[in-house]
Here is the input.
Amino acid sequence: MKHAYRAYAKINLLLDVTGKLPNGYHSVAMIMQSIDLHDTVTVEAAGRPGVGIACDLPYIPTDRRNIAWKACEAFGVTDGLNITLEKRIPSQAGLGGGSADAAAVLTALRDMFKPGMPDGELLAIGAKVGADVPFCLTGGCCLAEGIGELLTSLPCLPDGYEIEVLKPSAGVNTAKAYAALDTIALRRPQTAQAVGYARQSDWESLFPLCENVFEQVARLPGLAEYRRGRLEHGALLARMTGSGSAVYSIWRAGTMPAALQAPMVCEGSFICKPTQFGVEEI
Here is the structure.
């Protein structure tokens, strides 16, 4: 029997890097929101050894390097599975595409093999796979702390907003972005106040406080022009998500101009809505 899921992307409304841990990882404070841009992940039993992974993008690895395989390993099932990934979330964009796929695989494995597994146990397995995987299992809107795995649920951004997402052709190296942050004195977001507004669902007081510290070291062509132009046209928020390179803007539904120019070369553009789901069975 096939188990198919929508694996939803995320954006960072706010992203602060709060310190560097002894193991080399960085501690963070992030407000993350799921959006309805999604991959489709199908998992089914197969009468053969190992895990077979198929993907519709030829440059995505389909062996042990794929985070879907790592999810199987962390769950403890590494035989008799076929996994199909239909990608729509751009890769290496700060949108959580790989983590979303891993979350869908973990959800499928629980449904197939351990349907009584508590959510907390599944989240703990997800944290072993990747720092964003617990959020991608949870979905909606959350404050994420620690290395991203410590989650506090917040009210979900409502349907009264729509979100433009652009994936520039230029890329960002996450490791180099973190290393660059370690060399500067960061301007820190007002995270506590922003979380307070989020808890009250006071979105339009929240948006002006939303910052991404990676923008202080980003060398993404057109980022400043994108932000300035979208805000001038009426966007409520325009930011880079994660360490990049995707950018997004949030608008009151129905107010986004029909033809907006991007000040950078893009390989993908999407108009999205918020969603309360991280993974949703089809």
In short: The CA atoms of residues 77 and 113 lie 9 Å apart. The chain has a mean pLDDT of 96. The first helix runs from residue 67 to 75.
